[in-house]
Write a structure and sequence with these properties.
Layout (H helix, E strand, L loop, with lengths): L5 E7 L12 E6 L5 H9 L17 E6 L3 E5 L10 H17 L3 E9 L6 H12 L4 E6 L6 H17 L8 E3 L8 H18 L3
């Protein structure tokens, strides 16, 4: 699948105000500074679609983008060490929770993880929460260009081992990406395209 059009639709903090459409959507989320905006721009082949910043935690809204006029890409706030007050952080963490629990159009979440780091409890706990709430998700490892192949493989194996140790029967789909080299995006789009076809078949107009 190629992205022919990518258009910003709406930003908000109220799930009830998200687009009232019957098209599938995919939510991208990860710790602050994981490279989410850069990846979204690479996937959509549009340099400034999602706003990038050197300051972690810039995204603090639910952002909907209409892709190819038939599915939504949703950019969710990062979690972790964003430089916002505790009160503000709790507020947008709540609407993240509300989004995942209430948004019926959501087909799958994509959890972004910085490939350079050892397994982080905050990521593993979020995976557990998604599983407990029956929310399908995939893992996207970002910044693959920052490590040599052996180090990449070691870190991914460390994560997959930790996931399986947390009583998962099988691993979720895993993608390895580099926004700098624009690698991995095509595989994500192929996967989304396959899910779109399944969505259409099970939700006919």
């Amino acid at each position: 699948m190629q992205v022919h059009s990518a258009t910003f639709i709406i930003s908000n903090t109220d799930v009830s105000k998200c687009p009232n459409t019957a098209i599938p959507e995919y939510a991208f989320i990860g710790r602050s500074n994981v490279g989410k905006s850069s990846l979204i721009n690479a996937i959509c082949n549009k340099k400034n679609l999602a706003k990038t910043s050197s300051r972690p935690g810039k995204t603090q809204l639910i952002n909907h983008f209409l892709i190819n006029k038939n599915w939504h890409l949703v950019d969710l706030p990062g979690f972790g060490y964003a430089r916002v007050s505790k009160t503000h952080k709790k507020k947008f963490q709540k609407f993240i929770t509300d989004y995942f629990k209430q948004r019926k159009q959501l087909v799958s979440a994509f959890l972004l993880i910085d490939i350079r780091h050892e397994p982080q409890s905050i990521d593993l706990n979020f995976m557990q929460w998604l599983g407990e709430n029956y929310i399908p998700f995939s893992i996207i490892f970002t910044k693959a260009d920052k490590l040599k192949p052996a180090a990449r493989e070691r870190n991914i194996n460390n994560y997959t081992r930790k996931i399986l140790e947390n009583h998962w029967e099988e691993l979720p789909p895993i993608f390895i990406t580099s926004s700098l080299h624009k690698t991995g995006s095509e595989k994500i789009l192929i996967y989304i395209n396959s899910l779109n076809k399944d969505f259409t078949e099970t939700n006919p107009l």
